[in-house]
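Appendix B, Record 12. Input sequence as logged:
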Amino acid sequence: MTAIDAETGKAVWRSNRYQVRETVGVSEDGHRVYARCMTDTVVALLTSSSSLSVLWATPCGYGYDIDPSMPIEKDGVVFFGTKNGLVIALDAKTANVLWKHRVGETIVHTPVPLEARCVLVSDLDGRLSLIQAR
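Logged structural output:
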């Protein structure tokens, strides 16, 4: 994973600590970057640091995953999908898994959160689901 200065185009830092592909999203306030690793873990990193600064790393139990969708934060909840139809919600501050819900058997696109307890998702099969947490 590499952090790049948007103004200069120069690398700020680079690390091989986490195996991340294109599954990166930014918090609502812009202070954190969420990266979904290729195996089980989501990490939150500070955007203002000149070195890799991990706020939290939490195992989510999704196994090996290559779904390219981004983690998205809404009202303090981070939502993301997996390649096997699972949608997961994490608390943005504590990294606790709030819930998991399977919508199908295939890749879930980048979620569209409507509020902290309600998210709209679609998958590669064309299925559209509205998930409302209790």
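The domain at 2-132 is CATH 2.130.10.10 (Methylamine Dehydrogenase; Chain H).
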